[in-house]
């Protein structure tokens, strides 16, 4: 991996990153394809058309399916030649570690030092995943960037619990590093140049977060993520943690804010030095007829769009806006036609990807603060 900062404005940074699967221009929004597909019938060819640089898939979900009790999903994908070949995508892929499912499937799991025991949300069967298992699954998938296995503690958990959880996450990171080094050294590994990002945790406790950031920074990972945010705390608390933590992560390596977020969250994150973002909002909102514009968010189910001949946004170059009216897309949504959801998802992802391009350009030109102010003022308007 080569990561080079091309321009800065305050703490905001514009960088170029080279990987075995192609280059990444940051700041970047990773389009979320949890089970190797963007929800809303969006193909990998569509992703290229709308300017997607990085696709993100989920380790836990691709372990439980495809496949069955005889062969796990990741083993099936490995036999196919890896996730890139399986889903017909030749650009970078980041796989999360399954650590978030430790948080989100709290009713279906048990945590101990060795790892986590899950009950599959698909068929109830017992699954064990620790650092070695998570890295092995991600190695089978052959992703460009693998995430370390961690626990995402509830942001409002007791200090004593968070401190113990973070210490365990640090120990798990050491085991992840050892395992990925072993697997990358094997001749039959799908991607022998797989990168590993460590994850900072600590809830909304600045002292725990900072101490953890200092500790994992010394472990020389390929990049670093800030996890465990946007899970119940306020936006102001999230920004406070970023202000405290990001300066303690290596500036010369990529920084990733996991699971965030809204366009405003992203602008605030970029201002604080974050490179990578991901979130299900654009696809999830699109499937419910909620679309982003530079003049605020629209709900296309509203009756006022019944005879609206305009595109979702004037001047937008996405596949939906090039050809279809708000009225037609509303009709499709009301009729339950998949095409309506697909067009809304394509528009939203295009909006996010275009915003990231504009952010990169504004940092290069030394006008990010101006761009951010104008973008936020427009998006907070009532469309």
From TrEMBL:
Function of the protein: Catalyzes the base-exchange of a guanine (G) residue with the queuine precursor 7-aminomethyl-7-deazaguanine (PreQ1) at position 34 (anticodon wobble position) in tRNAs with GU(N) anticodons (tRNA-Asp, -Asn, -His and -Tyr). Catalysis occurs through a double-displacement mechanism. The nucleophile active site attacks the C1' of nucleotide 34 to detach the guanine base from the RNA, forming a covalent enzyme-RNA intermediate. The proton acceptor active site deprotonates the incoming PreQ1, allowing a nucleophilic attack on the C1' of the ribose to form the product.
The species this protein was found in: Moryella indoligenes
Domain tRNA-guanine(15) transglycosylase-like: 12-379
Similarity section: Belongs to the queuine tRNA-ribosyltransferase family.
InterPro entries: ArchSynthase1/Queuine_TRR, TGT, TGT-like_sf, tRNA_ribo_trans-like
GO terms, molecular function: metal ion binding; tRNA-guanosine(34) queuine transglycosylase activity
Name of the protein in its database record: Queuine tRNA-ribosyltransferase
Coiled-coil residue windows: none
């Amino acid at each position: 991996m080569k990561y080079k900062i091309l321009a800065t404005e305050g703490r905001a940074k514009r960088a170029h990153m080279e990987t075995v699967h192609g280059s990444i221009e940051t700041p970047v929004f990773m389009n979320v394809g949890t089970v190797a597909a963007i929800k809303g019938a969006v193909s990998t060819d569509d992703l290229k058309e709308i300017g997607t640089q990085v696709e993100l898939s989920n380790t836990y979900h691709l372990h439980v399916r495809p496949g069955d009790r005889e062969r796990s999903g990741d083993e099936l994908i490995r036999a196919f030649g890896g996730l890139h070949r399986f889903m017909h995508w030749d650009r970078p892929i980041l796989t999360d570690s399954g650590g978030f499912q430790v948080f989100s499937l709290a009713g279906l799991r048990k945590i101990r030092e060795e790892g986590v025991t899950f009950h599959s949300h698909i068929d109830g069967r017992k699954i064990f995943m620790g650092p070695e298992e998570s890295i092995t699954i991600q190695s089978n998938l052959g992703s460009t960037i693998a995430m370390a296995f961690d626990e995402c503690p509830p942001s409002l958990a007791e200090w004593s619990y968070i401190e113990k959880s973070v210490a365990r996450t640090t120990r798990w990171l050491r085991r992840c590093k050892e395992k990925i080094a072993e697997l990358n050294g094997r001749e039959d590994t799908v991607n022998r140049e797989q990168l590993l990002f460590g994850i900072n945790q600590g809830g909304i406790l600045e002292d725990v977060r900072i101490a953890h950031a200092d500790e994992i920074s010394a472990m020389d990972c390929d990049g670093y993520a800030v996890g465990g945010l946007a899970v119940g705390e306020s936006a102001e608390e999230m920004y406070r943690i970023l202000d405290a933590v990001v300066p303690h992560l290596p500036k010369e390596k990529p920084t990733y804010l996991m699971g965030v977020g809204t366009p405003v969250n992203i602008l605030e994150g970029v201002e604080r030095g974050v490179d990578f973002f991901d979130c299900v909002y654009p696809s999830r909102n699109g499937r419910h007829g909620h679309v982003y514009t530079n003049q605020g968010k629209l709900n296309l189910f509203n009756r006022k769009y019944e005879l609206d001949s305009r595109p979702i946004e004037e001047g937008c170059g996405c596949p939906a806006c090039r050809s279809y009216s708000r009225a037609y897309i509303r009709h499709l949504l009301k009729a339950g036609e998949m095409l309506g959801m697909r067009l809304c998802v394509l528009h939203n992802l295009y909006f996010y990807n275009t915003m990231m391009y504009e952010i990169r350009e504004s940092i290069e030109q030394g006008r990010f603060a101006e761009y951010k102010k104008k973008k936020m003022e427009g998006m907070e308007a009532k469309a």
